[in-house]
Amino acid sequence: MDTYCRPTGQGWLTRRIHLGVTPHFVVYHPPARSCFVVTSKKEPFRPQRAPFDVQLNIVYDEESGGVQSITTEAPVSNMPPIAPNAGIRVPMADRFEIRLMSTTDWACTDTLLLEENERVLGAQMMEIQCERDAEGLHTAPVCVVSTAFPLGEDITCRGRILLLATICTKKKRKIVLFHSEPLNGPATAVVGIRHHIAVAVGGTIKLFRFDWSNRKLVVGALLYAGLM
Q1: Which of 38, 52, 97, 112 would bridge with 25, disulfide CB 3.0–4.6 Å?
Q2: What are the mean pLDDT values of the chain's consecutive 10-residue runs (228 residues total)?
Q3: pTM for this model (two decimals)
């Protein structure tokens, strides 16, 4: 850091911003003159699965052998976190949140708290296609965040993609979460390719485009990483 910030180095340190938490990603949003800052802080751990990780309970008929009923079970953890004064070691986990910080005065204008046990693995600013009009095809800047819910070897790891934008209200910028796409696996990396969103999900790379009319992500291509 000292070598980098010297006058003969590649950068110049002008100000230190105290966050009080651990920073992971910084994504600059030029139209809003703001930065999406992904941070985390420690909190007591609970084995809470992803809110969209719904389990199926299948009851079979013993006489006919067919399916008698199928019900869904919401991912609810009834186990409270261990109190700090319990006399045992308290397992800790990172609780992630996304802050929107202005680059004019470096004040935090808004925060987005993510789900319990959700980790951010990637964040990129990219342009996605908007609706076409008489002037042609337009694009919109969005911050794409890829996450995962790692809970151990016995529980299938899920993930999701978040599409974030900003809106100006009362002279302050706010975070707008205009889409959340659940995935069957962890979203380990994300990158923009010609106004499309490429996401690595396990051993598969999925290429998404955003459908503005239906407000959802549509898979345009799949790439499977196999062993040669």
Answers
A1: 38
A2: 55 76 94 93 86 69 64 62 73 93 90 95 90 70 94 86 91 90 92 91 90 86 73
A3: 0.81
